[in-house]
Amino acid sequence: MRATTIHAPYDMRVEDVPEPVVKLPTDAVVRVLRSCICGSDLWAYRGEAARQPGQRIGHEFLGVVEETGSEAGTVRRGDLVVAPFMWSDGVCDYCREGLTTSCRHGGFWGSVGYDGGQGEAVRVPFADGTLVQLPKEAASDDHLLSALLTLSDVLGTGHHAALGAGARPGATVAVVGDGAVGLCAVLAAKRLGAERIIALGRHEVRTDIARRFGATDVVAERGDAAVEAVRELTRGQGAHAVVEAVGTEQSMRTAVNITRDGGAIGFVGVPHGSGTGLDLGVMFDRNVALRGGVAPVRAYIPDLLPDVLDGTIDPSPVFDLTVGIEGVPDGYKAMDERTALKVLVTNG
Known about the structure:
- By secondary structure, the protein is an alpha/beta fold.
- Helix 8 runs parallel beside helix 9.
- The longest helix is centred in the last third of the chain and has 13 residues.
- It is globular.
- The relative contact order is 0.15.
């Protein structure tokens, strides 16, 4: 089959690799219909996250179950399924508590020795605990497939951030970051009933999507100017709930400084750089809480899925470029150069 591999910074290739097969009785093999490129994949692309030459990549996909092991009980051949960005056994203490990303037997797609989502098929460990069934008729609806694909990562991650920040009816929410996760956090905050949503971003195409998703205000400034702008919009107080969806020192500092006393920050931006900009003294004095981390999206899919299926929320606009499997390297280049927000990969 064809699959995306990474060999060095900026060296992405689509190559022939062995077809996946069931190795353990709890496995399934999924033939991928849709996958995508994540902003976090760019850290490997740019050489800021280590990868072995030839390692697979991609952690967001949905497709059709092609084969199952003898102990797979809830998924069957022919089922349309979506996979969260980590596999999990579904039965350990952490999984039962909803923290599937801490599963003792879990792992990330594209890890050494495992398939990545940006390929034609994937061996799925712990299929029963990992995969979520979708209506089979969705396979013929391109628009719905795009929306459903966001359940694998960005929609659930945006939801995790909004929950961590305490988005709720009547609250003012501010979202730092205009990538796909930040935009999905806007959508999640709106779904959770936020009264006012301030999107911080400098790219008009993206902030237009933010407004479509429910943002009531847009702040294009950065740093101290952004803090001043948010405080002007909030009677000098800041936002009750703040989402940090970037992961840099500057973005975290901005998040802290625009949070209202007694408010909370939901952070889901993958941290990178020399520090976090986190001043515990400031947070202590102002009773600012910090919650977030790697989103346990598997636990959120059952809650979010009905709203995607009935059109209550439509996260599909985060995809603004579509490529076939052979075009994945060009998709990385487009996202790296910021000419694309998020690239959808189709396999027929």
